[in-house]
Amino acid sequence: MPTAKASVSKVTILASSWFTRPTCVVAADLVGKILCRQLIDSDGNVKTLRLRISETEAYIGDEDGSVQAHVGTRTKRGDIMYEQGGIFYIYLTYGVHHMLNLVSGKAQSPESVLIRAGFLIDNSDHSDADSSTDNSGNNKKLTPVQQLKQFAGPGKLTKHLQIDRTLSGLAIDPESNLWIEDDECTPPVSLRPRIGIDYAGEAKDWLLRYVWTDHPSLSKK
Predict the structure, then answer these.
(1) What are the angstrom distances between the C-alpha of 188 and each of 112, 151, 165, 181, 205?
(2) Which of 1, 2, 29, 3 is nearest to 102 (CA)?
């Protein structure tokens, strides 16, 4: 598995101002950061899941055809993307999957970073998603490969982390029970075209997907 250096002694919580930087810089720098989600599991226990981010996509304003498809006439939902960076924008796609976006850049330009994939780190709590039910109704532990793939895709990621539109508009902050930590992990990052935006004209080919090079947790190479 591809590895990257990380500091075991220095962990910081990213402040809202970190997300006001240029969106492409934010998207690239988020690869290797830790997405933290505090939730209550099926037994009523409070847990904190820590997911190392391995794949992001940048959406960079009015000239980006994929952004226009979402914000177009500036509906109340899309208005969130015009806010200053540092809040969540979560929307439902195909009526099924929630997409976790981090609003980025300066105010009045619709920009955000979509979190596409990641994997649980060693000091993470574990959730109900770490086991599956076989045809006989018995629970069985996921293999290491299955564990890496359970967050491979934005819909899978939000499902397992219990992220939905109730978080949209909240600050990227522990008080929202969803935040980003930095332990100085520095993985190799490669650029790829974004996924599922064939409607976006020339923007569909822009290299705005940032991936941890060759990592097995990616939604797509």
Answers:
(1) 22, 20, 32, 18, 22
(2) 29
C-alpha angle 6/187/67, rounded to 5°?
125
pLDDT tens for each residue of 92-114: 987 889 999 999 999 999 999 99
pTM for this one? Answer: 0.88
In this predicted model, what pLDDT tens digit does every residue of 200-212 receive, in sequence order?
A: 888 989 999 999 9
Q: Quick: pLDDT tens for 118-169.
A: 999 988 988 665 555 444 555 667 777 788 899 999 999 999 999 999 999 9
What distance in Å separates the CA atoms of residue 179 and residue 176, rounded to the nearest whole number? 7
Cα torsion for 209, 210, 213, 214, to the nearest 10°?
-40
Q: Which residues contact 153 (CB under 8 A, 6 or more apart)?
A: 116, 117, 219
Which residues, 6 or more positions from 30, have their beta carbon under 8 angstroms from its beta carbon?
53, 56, 102, 113, 115, 180, 210
Q: Are 8 and 72 in contact (CB under 8 A)?
A: no
Between CA 44 and CA 178 the distance in angstroms is: 18
Cα separation, 194 vs 190, whole angstroms: 12
- Hey, what are 70's tokens? 């979402």
The dihedral formed by the CA atoms of 110, 64, 59 and 199, expressed in degrees to the nearest 10: 120
Q: Which pLDDT does position 55 carry in this prediction?
A: 98
